[in-house]
């Protein structure tokens, strides 16, 4: 018997409520998620805790497609959640959809 993981698409914000290059923390159940609008207009969502010292990534600095943790400057790829070398670790990423100017995250 195949088990399919159930995922839900959850509306979290209107696109106008998200400032470019500034993170926003959203909560979906027990999940704390950092939401970003990049200078390219892309919307990204990742787990809001750095794997190093649990720094709030929504308060980090965005550069291109990366977020820098506000505590110790760890560089994390917003596409795949991987911490860049020489540091090591990963955070969860979430698929994002924009529907009628509302941002939805698949959890």
Automatic annotation (TrEMBL):
Gene transcribed to yield this protein: nirD
GO BP, sorted A to Z: nitrate assimilation
Leader sequence segment: none
Phylogenetic lineage: Bacteria, Bacillati, Bacillota, Bacilli, Bacillales
GO molecular function: 2 iron, 2 sulfur cluster binding; metal ion binding; monooxygenase activity; nitrite reductase [NAD(P)H] activity; oxidoreductase activity, acting on paired donors, with incorporation or reduction of molecular oxygen
Protein name per Swiss-Prot or TrEMBL: Nitrite reductase (NAD(P)H) small subunit
Coiled-coil portions: none
InterPro entries for this protein: Rieske-like_NirD, Rieske_2Fe-2S, Rieske_2Fe-2S_sf
Ranges for domain Rieske: 10-105
Superkingdom of the source species: Bacteria
Keywords, comma-separated and alphabetical: 2Fe-2S, Iron, Iron-sulfur, Metal-binding, Nitrate assimilation, Oxidoreductase
